[in-house]
Design brief:
CATH class: Alpha Beta
Structural class: alpha/beta
CATH topology: Rossmann fold
Radius of gyration: 18 Å
Strand content: 15-25%
Distance between the termini: 56 Å
Mean pLDDT: 92
Shape: globular
Number of helices: 7
Number of strands: 13
Length: 296
């Protein structure tokens, strides 16, 4: 995995060096795709991306954002969950007027029904990463907005359905993928990150209802709702969670090579259907803005 990862990092670094900070985005979109290990560089190596840029936000400069277009639909792309700039990422999407976002990751399978190579469209999360801010800062919002989001549900059901449907279609179209299942729903355990979990931690995660463990999707679910962005994610089970089965780092490389392009096909196929949701009432509309409690 080392040489592939080194090339991947070099590509990202080169792209970041070329991105200019601008006052106005050079393209307009209401849909964003947030990259992670479910995509890796499949989208970077595609023909779907064009000009890159950064914008200034009240909490700092955004990560690199790419203008994208596929199936006649414009979208923004942010690589690697925002390259460590989680708050800046979702603040930038809020400022840009994004309404829909697709994210994802690879994950360790905790639920024994979720086998290696299976796809999951999760619907809930438990967050053990206490090093990241629990909320987007108040100064980013339009005057008068008071945000106290709810997460029942934590993801957007319409986007969930689109991802599940497009995943099933993509898998059915390729006989080599016939052993892969699609799971609708599931609880993401967001670990603290910086290391893999211990077997004892995984046993605990299983006891409290976790189905998979990863490091960023929980933050995306949380921040998306705070930013008024409808969100769903596509997760690939890349290995059994620690203590639940044997795996090697080389196994992860094989997963990336075989399924990153499949994930990209799913996301690209979903874009026109996501664009078709514009203007429809959404579950998140009533779950984000806290009603005014007092006159002052």
């Amino acid at each position: 995995m080392g040489s592939a990862l080194a090339g991947f990092v070099a590509m990202v670094s080169a792209g970041m060096a070329m991105a200019q900070t601008v006052a106005t985005a050079p393209c307009k979109a209401t849909i964003a795709v947030i990259g992670g290990t479910y995509l890796n560089d499949a989208l970077l190596n595609s023909s779907y991306l064009g000009q890159t840029f950064r914008i200034r936000t009240p909490v700092g400069e955004s990560p690199e954002i790419a203008c994208g277009k596929a199936n006649g639909v414009d979208f923004y792309y942010i690589h690697g969950h925002g390259q460590g700039r989680w708050v800046e990422t979702w603040t930038a999407l809020y400022k840009l007027g994004v309404k829909e976002a697709i994210g994802g990751a690879t994950a360790g399978g905790v639920n024994p029904e979720m086998k290696t190579r299976d796809f999951v469209v999760p619907s809930d999360f438990i967050d053990f990463n206490i090093s990241r801010p629990r909320a987007l800062p108040k100064q980013i919002y339009t005057t008068g907005e008071t945000i106290l989001p709810r997460y029942t549900p934590a993801t957007d059901p319409l986007l969930d359905d689109i991802l599940v449907d497009e995943t099933r279609k993509r898998l059915a179209a390729d006989a080599s993928l016939k052993d892969i299942r699609v799971h609708k729903g599931g609880v993401v355990i967001q670990a603290a990150g910086g290391r893999f979990e211990t077997p004892a931690e995984i046993r605990f995660f299983k006891q409290i209802g976790g189905d998979m463990v990863t490091m960023n999707v929980g933050s995306e679910m949380a921040y998306a709702r705070m930013a008024g962005v409808n969100y769903a994610s596509l997760v690939v089970i890349s290995n059994p969670a620690e203590g639940l089965g044997d795996w090697r780092f080389e196994d992860l490389t094989a997963i990336y090579r075989s399924l990153n392009k499949v994930s990209l096909d799913i996301v690209i196929a979903a874009l026109p259907r996501i664009a078709g949701l514009a203007g429809k009432p959404r579950v998140g509309d009533a779950l984000r803005i806290h009603p005014e409690m007092t006159s002052k």
